[in-house]
C-alpha cells in the first residue's frame, strides 16, 4: 500500500506543478488587472502628482521583482537536482569538490569514510552522512529534508535554498496582496452594486484574494518551520532523531550537541552560502547560487569534539542507525 501511494504521488507530481503555476499566476493577474489600477492612476494624467507617479513606478517595479523571484525560485526548486549518488549527479558535483579541495576537506572525507555507512540497502550506492533514501523518487538524496509533491522533487542539499526563498517571496507577496487588495475584494463581493469596471471577473477576484490568504497562512507555517530548522542546522528528518537523542542524553545526565550547528548566525550564513564567496546581499538576487560544500561531507562544530569520545561515537552510531531505519522502513 505504501509503495502504491508513493507511486501515485510520483505520477501526479507534474499536475501539482501545473496547478501551482495556474493558482499563482491567477493571483498575479488579479493584482495587475484589478488591484494595481484600483490603487494607482494608469493614465498618468497631468492631475497626478509627481509623488503619485513615483509611487506607481515603485509599486510596479517592486511587484515585478517579487513576481520574478517567485517564479525563478520555484523553477529552480523544481529543476535543480537535490543531490544524490548516481553517476550523473556525482559528475555534476566534481567542480564543487575541486573548488573546495583542501586539507580540511580531505580530513572530512576520511572521517566520513570511516564513520558513516557507505552503501544504501535499497539502491546499493554509496550513502554519505545526512543522506536518506526517498521512497517516492526511489533514490538517496543528499541532506534530505522531505519529498514535496508541489515541486515534484525532493528538497535536499542543492535545492533547499531555492525552496525556502520561494516560500519567503510567496508569503511576502501574499501579505502585500492582502493589504492593498482589500477594497477591490470588498467591491468584488458587491455583485448588485455598480458595474464592474475591470476585465478580470468579480468571482475570480474574490477567489484570488481568499486564495492568497490561505496560501499565506499555509506557507507561513511551513516557512517558519524551515527557518527554525535553518538556524538550528537541522533537516526535518534530523529534527525528529535529534529530539529523541536529546531525551536519551537528558535521561543519562549528558549534554546533547548537534554536531552540525555553529550558532544561529553562522548556520544562516552557511545555509544561504553568504559571507565568503557570495556577499550577504546576493540572497536577494534571483540568480543561481549553489549551496556550500558538496553535500557528502559536513564540518562538525567544536562543541561536538569537546564531548567525551564515547559520546561522539554514540552520536555517529545514532546517525548510522537512523539511516538504516530509513532503509528498513521502506522495504
3D structure, described in words:
By secondary structure, the protein is mainly alpha-helical. The chain has one domain (2-329). The protein is built from twelve helices and four strands, in the order αααααββββααααααα. Strands 1-2 form a two-stranded antiparallel sheet. The chain has a two-stranded antiparallel ribbon with strand order 3-4. α6 crosses α8 (202-231). It is elongated and about 75 Å long. The model is unreliable at 95-101 (pLDDT under 50).
Mean pLDDT: 85
Q: Into which percentage range does the β-strand content fall?
A: under 5%
The biggest sheet amounts to: 2 strands, antiparallel
- How many helical stretches? 12
Major sheet: arrangement of strands = 1-2
SSE order: HHHHHEEEEHHHHHHH
**Distance between the ends:** 12 Å
Shape field:
elongated
The number of domains is 1
Radius of gyration: 24 Å
InterPro entries: Palmitoyltrfase_DHHC, PFA4/ZDH16/20/ERF2-like
Main location: membrane
Family: Belongs to the DHHC palmitoyltransferase family.
Subcellular location: Membrane
List the topology elements.
Elements: H1 2-39, H2 50-79, H3 87-92, H4 94-99, H5 103-115, E1 132-134, E2 139-141, E3 146-148, E4 153-155, H6 160-180, H7 182-189, H8 202-231, H9 236-251, H10 264-272, H11 302-306, H12 309-329
Antiparallel strand pairs: 1-2, 3-4
Helix pairs in contact: 1-8, 2-6, 6-8, 7-8
Quick rundown:
By secondary structure, the chain is mostly helical. It has helices at residues 2-39, 50-79, 87-92, 94-99, 103-115, 160-180, 182-189, 202-231, 236-251, 264-272, 302-306, 309-329; strands at 132-134, 139-141, 146-148, 153-155. It has one domain.
